[in-house]
């Protein structure tokens, strides 16, 4: 099921589609700084700052694992997706900006 949604997504993706993936268990990565992360983040999101992402990936051998990345505006998330793809991870999804994802957060997740 991940693959059908992943196949539809490229570049920056509509928040609703990203939430479908998140609700199905796709790992969410916040590529902002620890200070930005501390100011608010998505539930269950891992904070892996962009400058540490390549090193973090060395701990993950399953290159088919899907990830949704987000940041403040979507630019760092896209750079993060580029880093994942350059390291052989083909299922990197740019979730865009945190504020946009929060606008479309399903009530089931928000109430959690």
TrEMBL record:
Residues that span the membrane, as ranges: none
InterPro entries (UniProt xref): Rhodanese-like_dom, Rhodanese-like_dom_sf, Thiosulfate_ST/Rhodanese-like
The UniProt entry, under SMART domains, shows: RHOD
Question: Where do the Rhodanese domain residues begin and end?
Answer: 22-109
What's one Pfam family here? Rhodanese
What PROSITE patterns does this protein map onto?
RHODANESE_3
What is this protein's record name? Rhodanese domain protein
